[in-house]
């Protein structure tokens, strides 16, 4: 059990790391983006950051203790994700958590031994392939199919918008087995990089310098041992994975909004127009008040949802609310900040534009905002029916 003081200390360590190591790299990242280059960090810079992260104990934060991790609860991780998202520098503390949650929930002993140590130490990268050309916001409509053939599974279908697909050492692939409709029959498999029939057909450049991939499965044969969890029971663990990622996105959105407020307020206190500081204008004050109020509300919502997760509950509804509320806050707060900075807000010299693009992506991935609103409305109406 982690104490309040320990939790505070971890968060402070992350905040200092971001301030001392990541924010100074923003001009480099922004310059690359302005030239149309990928905002990736040079390998030596990444290696240096990884060394520092390890040295100060920011490594394997969510990984199981048995694998050398800290196994931090969701309530503590919320603060970590928030602090890390106050910068536009693309650096994440490994392991990438959502797939870890799915693996921990359903992987068998052999799969744990094969994947978890490398994954938790940051050596193995993963992807998850759910979305299809005809099934994005509605993943239960997926068509990719897996059929048993002797001691192997044969996967056929097409996935799209898959992050990390080209680099991932393994991809968790969701496919339909049998004749079940919608959620029934959806099954997960682990497909290793280089498996014949797993074809990364094209790279798709997204906004915010993000890349996704279209992937084709053409008689892709995987061994029986690639089955992850139970046949036909993949939808639940997939939802667990999505739920944890949505909570993470909520915290990241709060980090983005906090940075927007920092930049907006600092500028408003200095900039004078028509003889008056922007900070003394009611229009600007209302933006500041709205952001501060919604930040407070978002943090309370996240703390509540994370505490439920830590108690073993599955607060899908509350996490949908977090995803809508915090992401809309981030998007609007960054827009207000850009407006307050005037022409400076339109440059590639502040972190605002990359963060705003990132917040724009958040409104789509892990379920578009409208789909979450529909899900909340459906659950709410059920109470009245
Ligand atoms: C940057 C990025 C990374 C991604 N990474 C991955 C990944 O790694 N793996 C993966 O599997 N997928 C990934 N995705 C896919 C993502 O999950 C889907 O794009 C998302 O679920 C929406 O699906 P869609 O694009 O097909 O939109 P659609 O389902 O076609 O929806 C389009 C729009 O229609 C509206 N809409 C849809 N349904 C409803 C409804 N019920 N009520 C009201 N309005 C509705 C919404 O406004 C929605 O934005 C990624 C997407 C992005 C943008």
Question: What are the salient characteristics of this protein?
Answer:
4-stranded mixed beta sheet, 3 domains, 385 residues, 4-stranded antiparallel beta sheet, binds flavin-adenine dinucleotide, single chain, Butyryl-CoA Dehydrogenase, subunit A, domain 2, alpha+beta, Butyryl-CoA Dehydrogenase, subunit A, domain 3
Strand order of the largest sheet: 1-4-5-8
Q: What is the average of the pLDDT values?
A: 95
Beta strand count: 10
Within CATH, the superfamily of the largest domain carries the name Butyryl-CoA Dehydrogenase, subunit A, domain 3
Shape: globular
Small-molecule components bound: flavin-adenine dinucleotide
Which bin fits the share of residues in helices?
40-55%
Spatial gap, N to C terminus: 41 Å
Q: Give the low-confidence spans.
A: none
Structural class: alpha+beta
Total domain units: 3
- How would a textbook summarize the main sheet? 4 strands, mixed
Question: Can you put this structure into words, describing what you see?
Answer:
The chain has 11 helices and 10 strands. It is an alpha+beta fold and 385 residues long. The two termini are 41 Å apart. The model has no long low-confidence stretch (mean pLDDT 95). Bound molecules: flavin-adenine dinucleotide (FAD).
Short description:
The protein has 385 residues and is an alpha+beta fold.
Please give the structural blueprint:
Blueprint: H1 4-22, H2 26-34, H3 43-55, H4 74-84, H5 97-106, H6 109-120, E1 126-129, E2 145-149, E3 152-163, E4 170-176, E5 186-192, E6 198-205, E7 211-223, E8 227-228, H7 235-270, E9 272-273, E10 276-277, H8 282-310, H9 316-340, H10 352-362, H11 369-382
Parallel strand pairs: 1-4
Antiparallel strand pairs: 2-3, 3-7, 4-5, 5-8, 6-7, 9-10
Helix pairs in contact: 1-4, 4-7, 5-7, 7-8, 7-9, 7-10, 8-9, 9-10, 9-11
The protein binds flavin-adenine dinucleotide.
């Amino acid at each position: 059990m982690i104490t309040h003081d320990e939790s505070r200390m971890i968060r402070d360590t992350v905040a200092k790391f971001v301030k001392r190591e990541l924010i100074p790299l923003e001009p480099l990242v922004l310059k690359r983006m302005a030239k149309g280059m990928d905002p990736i960090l040079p390998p030596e810079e990444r290696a240096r950051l990884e060394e520092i992260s390890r040295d100060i104990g920011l490594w394997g934060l969510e990984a199981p203790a048995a694998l050398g991790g800290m196994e931090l609860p969701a309530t503590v991780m919320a603060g970590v994700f928030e602090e890390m998202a106050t910068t536009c520098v693309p650096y994440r503390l490994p392991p990438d958590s959502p797939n870890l949650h799915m693996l921990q929930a359903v992987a068998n002993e052999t799969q744990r031994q094969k994947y978890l140590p490398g994954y938790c130490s940051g050596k193995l990268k993963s992807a998850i392939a759910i979305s299809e050309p005809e099934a994005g916001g509605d993943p239960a409509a997926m068509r990719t199919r897996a059929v048993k053939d002797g001691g192997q599974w044969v996967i056929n279908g097409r996935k799209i918008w898959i992050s990390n697909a080209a680099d991932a050492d393994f991809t968790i692939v969701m496919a339909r087995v049998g004749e079940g409709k919608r959620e029934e029959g959806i099954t997960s498999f682990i497909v290793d990089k280089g498996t014949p029939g797993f074809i990364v057909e094209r790279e798709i450049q997204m906004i915010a310098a993000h890349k996704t991939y279209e992937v084709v499965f053409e008689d892709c044969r995987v061994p029986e041992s690639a089955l992850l969890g139970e046949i036909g029971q993949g939808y639940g663990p997939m939802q667990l994975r999505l739920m944890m990622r949505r909570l993470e996105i909520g915290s990241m959105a709060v980090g983005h909004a906090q940075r927007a407020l920092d930049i907006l307020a600092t500028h408003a206190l200095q900039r004078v127009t028509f003889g008056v500081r922007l900070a003394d204008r009611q229009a600007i004050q209302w933006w500041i008040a709205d952001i501060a109020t919604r930040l407070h509300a978002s943090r309370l919502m996240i703390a509540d949802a994370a505490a439920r997760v830590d108690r073993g509950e599955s607060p899908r509804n509350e996490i949908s609310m977090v995803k809508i509320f915090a992401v809309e806050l981030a998007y609007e707060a960054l827009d207000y900040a850009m407006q307050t900075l005037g022409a400076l807000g339109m440059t590639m010299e502040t972190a605002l534009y990359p963060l705003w693009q990132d917040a724009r992506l958040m409104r789509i991935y892990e379920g578009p905002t409208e789909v979450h609103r529909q899900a909340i409305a459906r659950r709410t109406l059920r109470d009245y029916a």
